[in-house]
Design a protein that fits this description.
alpha/beta; Rossmann fold; N-(1-d-carboxylethyl)-l-norvaline Dehydrogenase, domain 2; 6-stranded parallel sheet; elongated; binds nicotinamide-adenine-dinucleotide; binds uridine-5'-diphosphate-xylopyranose; NAD binding; oxidoreductase
Length: about 450
């Protein structure tokens, strides 16, 4: 099938590449000429495991190419995916200007039947806005070409995007157009062994499903974080509690890890956007209001521990920091908890030496010229002379360090661990003062 993907970011690039992998003829468009140039020259503008090799393979096979030419890309695909950003507006609602601009470009150039697929995360009712924008553009040209609008939200997780796309739990397709339904069903058939995993529904329910999923997961994490904070005070161990509740199949083990609050490009903005949608319709989502508040507080949980230990004046203190990305296996720094933690430490007079396996370049871009913040290219290189080690992201390379060496490098054998990487008993044995999340701290 001939496919166009409008927007070649995390979602668009993965979507286009994975669709090419199963034999489709894919054109990926972006308005960012720099991004397209990198892709045309064989580079990949983002870090996503497995993506580079898959892009190379499909480009060589002639099934995948990249362009900034809107007309060419609209001409190309019978199916036109819209995978542009939907960042938060000033009031937290989803800003649809990129989605509407993409829809307008399609309307401006399309000749013949097209299926226009919203893959971006968009509020309920956006399908109607996309349809209206296309009709307006067609009318300006005196055209009456027929088309279908489909909602096909994306559920991939960064860091596991290829795996998630190639082997999805489910594929949600919202449409009331039979031709579009058949085309979308055939397109996704190779991705599911069991066709029950393709869930057809109306457009509005599909749009709502995406927000409902992210809001549910964000709620789960925030509640777990609150249970961790309580466990810590009550002398319980959240790691044991996690296993104890996860074994109930109604709860399950996944997505039950307490930490420094959820970040990334989706949960924070999608929780807010759903709240705004509800408010616009006179409904208050009280649980979600609490989730947002709890997550905001959780981003400071490590800082609170640091202040309790060192006092509020951190002048002259130096911290080693492991992990900048909002989670492992990505270079994405959008809403990363590390940014809140670093900002606090610097504002209170401390200096920070940070390491992350892949996101130092992104960190430099989003925190340009931050005085007192330096970067090193290995975990051990940030340690010398530090008053404490602060762990923010659970990269695998941080999980089994040479504790003797860590201790020898640090000024104080002191670790604030926002991801519970180590067993407190082991840390005690190794001679560390250790502050995990929701577990008993080791003060020696
Ligand atoms: P991104 O910022 O990485 O990529 C969006 C791209 O769209 C950018 O490269 C931008 O230049 C391009 N663009 C903007 N307007 C354009 C236009 N008119 N024509 C062509 N290109 C245009 O964003 P992302 O993380 O890929 O997210 C895209 C959408 O998918 C969002 O709605 C997001 O909520 C949703 N989503 C993201 C993830 C994720 O893990 N990142 C997962 C599921 C859903
Ligand atoms: C999320 C959704 O999972 C995905 O389905 C959607 O398509 C996009 O948004 P992503 O943001 O890439 O994916 O990462 P995810 O693995 O969901 O983690 C989100 C945040 O929650 C991260 O900050 C992570 O550290 C945090 N998290 C996750 C926890 O704190 N504990 C957990 O148990 C799981």
């Amino acid at each position: 099938m001939k496919i166009t993907v409008i927007g070649s970011g995390y979602v668009g690039l993965v979507t286009g590449t994975c669709l090419a992998e199963y034999g489709n003829d894919v054109v990926c468009l972006d308005v960012d000429a720099n991004k397209i140039q990198i892709l045309q020259e064989g580079g990949v503008p983002i870090f996503e495991p497995g993506l580079e090799e898959m892009i190379k393979r499909n480009v060589s096979a002639g099934r995948l190419r990249f362009t900034t030419d809107i007309k060419e890309s609209v001409d190309h695909g019978t199916i036109q995916f819209i995978a542009v950003g939907t960042p938060p507006d000033e009031d937290g609602s989803a800003d649809l200007k990129y989605v509407v601009a993409a829809a307008r470009s399609i309307g401006r150039y399309m000749n013949g039947y097209k299926v226009i697929v919203d893959k971006s995360t968009v509020p309920v009712g956006t399908g109607d806005k996309v349809r209206a924008a296309i009709i307006e553009e067609l009318a300006q040209r005196g055209e009456q070409t027929s088309f279908a609008v489909v909602s096909n939200p994306e559920f991939l997780k960064e860091g596991a995007a290829i795996e998630d796309f190639m082997r999805p739990d489910r594929i949600v397709i919202g449409t009331d157009d039979d031709t579009a339904k058949d085309l979308m069903g055939s397109l996704y058939a190779p991705f599911v062994r069991n066709h029950d995993r393709i869930l057809f529904m109306d457009v509005r329910s599909a749009e709502m499903t995406k927000y409902a999923a992210n809001a549910m997961l964000a709620t789960r994490i925030s509640f777990m974080n609150e249970l961790a904070n309580l466990s810590e005070v009550m002398g319980a161990d959240i790691e044991l509690v996690r296993k104890g509740i996860g074994s109930d199949p109604r709860i399950g083990y996944h997505f039950l890890y307490p930490g420094v609050g959820y970040g990334g490009s989706c949960f924070p903005k999608d929780v807010q956007a759903l709240q705004r949608t509800a408010e616009e319709h006179g409904i208050s989502l009280k649980v979600l209001d609490a989730v947002e508040k709890a997550n905001h507080a959780q981003k400071s949980v490590l800082v609170d521990k640091i202040v309790k230990r060192f006092g509020n004046d951190l002048k002259g203190k130096h911290f080693a920091l492991w992990g900048l990305a909002f989670k492992p296996n990505t270079d994405d720094m959008r809403d990363a908890p590390s940014r809140v933690i670093i900002e606090y430490l610097l504002n209170h007079g401390a200096t920070v030496a940070a390491h992350d396996p892949v996101s130092i370049h992104e960190a430099q871009r989003v925190m340009p010229g931050w005085q007192g913040l330096s970067y090193e290219d290995s975990p051990m290189a940030v340690l010398p002379g530090a008053d404490a080690l602060v762990i923010v992201t659970e990269w695998k390379v941080f999980r089994s360090p040479d504790f003797t060496e860590v201790k020898a490098q640090l000024k104080n054998a002191l670790v604030f661990d926002g991801r519970n990487l180590f067993d407190p008993k082991r840390m005690q044995k190794e001679g560390f003062e250790y502050y995990p999340i929701g577990r008993q701290q080791v003060t020696n």
